[in-house]
């Protein structure tokens, strides 16, 4: 289990590279969601790692990584962790892909460190988590996390997280992986992110941005996806039917291929650096 020592803690990471060793290939960094870990991206890796170096790490406080100092999260620090990981591995720039809460961190990173990005891709994410559908009760989330734990929280409203045709084994695996992160850490991250509103800064994000959303997502609703796409200067939005908020584990082949095509189009540009 490889770790990097960064800013007083350890971050668990994987770097997969099946590219030709005599060629210089770009890095794709995959950033997971709240209560997730780097394994959430495992089905994406075979699609991406033949053409790119693929970097994943457990967010601070999640699964195999150390808790944040004082057990308190801040969005600037989470954004800074991406930069620290890149520095430790000698990586100058990446194509960054963030899902849900990982997308919120990625939006902040795109604002704070635009010079370190080739592109940004967001999967079921939002600049303002508090703009969830009225059917989503953050207070109920807290109660389940405090009394029953992370796995129970992830299983409590699977109809909001997955499409109707999702294999139950996928949902069970997803919840088991979530159980690797303590409910205290999930609550602390939610407390941090529910206070954030990134809409004022996203018009300043300069990099090409691909926004992938689910038509029936109540956690990051389509209205928010459209508003985000309208405010990020170089954004394009695509909405998928019959999938839920956790679309990245429902249709990984479809989404990984779409992101790979997006990256290939950018890298074919004469201005790519």
Task: Describe the fold and architecture.
- With 273 residues, the protein is of the alpha/beta class.
- The protein has one domain (3-267): Rossmann fold (3-Layer(aba) Sandwich).
- 38% of the residues lie in helices and 17% in strands.
- It has helices at 45-48, 75-88, 101-112, 138-148, 150-156, 158-161, 168-178, 183-193, 222-231, 247-250, 252-267; strands at residues 3-6, 9-16, 27-31, 53-57, 94-99, 117-123, 209-214, 235-240.
- The protein has an eight-stranded mixed beta sheet with strand order 1-2-4-3-5-6-7-8, sandwiched between helices.
- β5, α3 and β6 form a beta-alpha-beta unit.
- The longest helix is centred in the last third of the chain and has 16 residues, at 252-267.
- The radius of gyration is 17 Å and the shape is globular.
- The model has no long low-confidence stretch (mean pLDDT 95).
What is the topological layout?
Blueprint: E1 3-6, E2 9-16, E3 27-31, H1 45-48, E4 53-57, H2 75-88, E5 94-99, H3 101-112, E6 117-123, H4 138-148, H5 150-156, H6 158-161, H7 168-178, H8 183-193, E7 209-214, H9 222-231, E8 235-240, H10 247-250, H11 252-267
Parallel strand pairs: 3-4, 3-5, 5-6, 6-7, 7-8
Antiparallel strand pairs: 1-2, 2-4
Helix pairs in contact: 2-3, 4-5, 5-7
Concise structural overview:
The chain has 273 residues and is an alpha/beta fold.
Short key terms for the protein model shown above:
8 strands; 17% strand; alpha/beta; 8-stranded mixed β-sheet; Rossmann fold; 273 residues; 38% helix
């Amino acid at each position: 289990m490889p770790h990097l020592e960064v800013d007083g803690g350890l971050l668990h990471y994987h770097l997969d590279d099946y590219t030709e060793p005599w060629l210089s290939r770009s890095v794709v960094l995959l950033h997971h969601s709240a209560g997730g870990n780097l394994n959430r991206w495992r089905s994406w890796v075979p699609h991406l790692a033949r053409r790119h170096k693929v970097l994943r790490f457990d967010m601070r406080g999640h699964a195999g990584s150390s808790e944040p100092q004082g057990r308190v999260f801040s969005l600037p620090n989470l954004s800074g962790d991406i930069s620290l990981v890149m520095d430790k591995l000698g990586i100058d720039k990446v194509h960054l892909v963030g899902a849900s809460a990982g997308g919120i961190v990625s939006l902040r990173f795109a604002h704070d460190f635009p010079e370190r990005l080739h592109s940004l891709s967001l999967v079921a994410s939002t600049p303002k988590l508090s703009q969830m559908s009225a059917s989503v009760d953050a207070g109920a989330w807290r109660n389940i996390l405090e009394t029953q734990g992370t796995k129970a929280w992830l299983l409590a409203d699977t109809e909001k997280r997955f499409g109707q045709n999702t294999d139950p084994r996928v949902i069970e695996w997803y919840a088991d992986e979530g159980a690797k992160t303590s409910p205290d850490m999930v609550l602390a991250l939610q407390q941090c992110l529910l206070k954030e509103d990134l809409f004022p800064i996203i018009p300043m994000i300069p990099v090409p941005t691909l926004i992938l959303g689910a038509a029936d997502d109540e956690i990051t609703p389509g209205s928010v996806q459209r508003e985000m796409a309208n405010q990020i200067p170089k954004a394009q939005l695509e909405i998928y039917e019959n999938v839920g908020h956790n679309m990245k584990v429902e249709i990984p082949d479809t989404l990984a291929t779409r992101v790979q095509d997006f990256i290939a189009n950018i890298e074919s540009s004469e201005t790519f650096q």
